[in-house]
Amino acid sequence: MRIALGADHRGTAAIRQLADMLQRDGHAVELIGDDTAQATDYPEQAFAVGKAIADKKAELGILVCGTGIGMSIAANKVHGVRAAVAHDELTAQLSRSHNNANVLCLSADLLGQRLIEKIVSTWLSTEFSGGRHARRIHKIDAIEKGQDPSSVKE
Fold it and tell me: Considering the domain boundaries, does residue 148 fall inside one?
């Protein structure tokens, strides 16, 4: 799987270790943006990873900042991105099975590296459930197009 990774200065160490784990697991990893410990603004990394998803240069993206919240807000502004913050394995699993999230946002400050890696493994191994959840994704797509989601029936 092609995975784009990005982090601000608070997530730099976590994303580097995550990149190593993902490469060992056989994934093609692209570390996007400045991966130094210099202060960086999370919207830049969120946009770059989101753009990689939108442009189909990566299938999935993972972003790490202090809380994961800022990255999620910024990444969700990119057309075609469904970014979700996960703080445990259950929220990671549900973000894929119910919401078909294509970007995972994580907290470097609240999660240890071991938990980050468990969350990512769960997220990557979870498939989208489809069914009633597909209809909801279509409604999200309608919102992106400026349409009323209630107009989407299937």
Answer: no
- Cα angle, residue 11 at apex, residues 7 and 14 outer, rounded to 5°: 110
With a cut of 70, say whether residue 62 has pLDDT above it. yes
C-alpha 19 chain-centroid distance: 14
Confidence band, pLDDT 50/70/90 cuts, at residue 146: confident
Contacts of residue 7, Cβ cutoff 8 Å, sequence gap at least 6: 14, 15, 33, 35, 45, 63, 64, 65, 108
CATH number at 50 reads 3.40.1400.10
**Active site (catalytic) residues:** 65, 98
Is 113 a domain residue?
Answer: yes
More confident residue, 49 or 38: 49
pTM of the model: 0.93
Among the listed residues 64, 120, 112, the one whose alpha carbon sits nearest the alpha carbon of residue 92: 120
